[in-house]
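Weekend entry, working from home. Most of the wet-lab plans are on hold until the incubator is repaired, so I used the time to fold the two sequences that have been sitting in the queue since the last round of cloning. Logging both here for the record. First:
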Amino acid sequence: MHVRTLTGGLAAALMVSFSLAGGQAVAASPEAEGASRAARVLLYDAGGSAEFRTAVDRGAAIWNESVDAVELRPAAAGQRANIRVLADNGWPRALPTTLGNGTVYIGRQAVDQGYNTIRISAHELGHILGLPDRKPGPCSSLMSGSTAGTACTNAYPNAAEKAEVEGNFGGALTQAAPAARDEVIVD
């Protein structure tokens, strides 16, 4: 689990700006600061993902652990989902409609050939988050997909892939005051 906290005093100090005309110090309100740091929430419906439901939930959790600018959450009953996840007998694929929206298919063909279901889920969700395939590629690249081979079980995006998703969803705002953030990794 990736837990992030803001150090209040330091964050406030970094958010102070000086007016060129009057030299007055103005601190950003906590509400304004929180608004600029809020992750875009995308709801996903994995109700049609059959035997891959756990893999889909884990793939979403991996993205949530890896980036700050977007958060994938399961849609509750009656909520409209941005992402629909389905199982079928074909090859895995994603059909994005717009950034953060579309349909993911967890195809049994790749699973039957020995590809890792969590890697497939995270990879296809990566397409919905705006990432292209990067084939051929090494196992360390999530978006290398099947070219990394069936032995590859890495389901985590690399630094470049994380940065691209952050940029796609306005992550530059989340990086405005990196010194004000304490990051604690809890296993």
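Second, folded right after the first finished:
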Amino acid sequence: MLELSILGFLAEEPLHGYELKERIKALSGHVRPVSDGALYPAINRLVAAGRLEQHTEEGASAAPRRVLSLTAQGREDLLERLRSPKPAEISDHVRFNTVLAFLRQLDDPAEQAAVLRRRLDFLETPASFFYRDGEPVRAEQAGDLFRQGMLRVARATGVAERAWLREAIEVLGQPSRART
């Protein structure tokens, strides 16, 4: 997901490493913080793979800074990652939000809707944090105030997300002037 975030933010505009780190941190850092020890090796891998290019600019006050931008190959990689998210990128809420943050980069509303349908299909499969005799435990069956709270919040969030996904899929299926 770190590479997807890097590619996604650089598709919007060239950035230097610190700006990029701050944007990634704002997107998911409260849940999954990004360290320099993860970010810069990922940037170096993407540069070596020809997906990013870098150049040096004068720094605002002192040291020069490395500015990163997306290459055509990097843009194609980003689009492919968005068209075909891995199963964990559909099932994990934080990872799906990262996909969602950059889904507008796909120009085709049908491709966007296909990704949203995959998430909706996942959310419509009965699930729980807890199981009894192989069956999902509902909030009313939890028998524990705290687990009941977890399940009630998850249910409410799921209801809201499914409603939004259905609405977004419908909007994406309309003629382009209705999507603005």
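Plan for Monday: verify the second prediction. The first strand starts at residue 15 and ends at 16.
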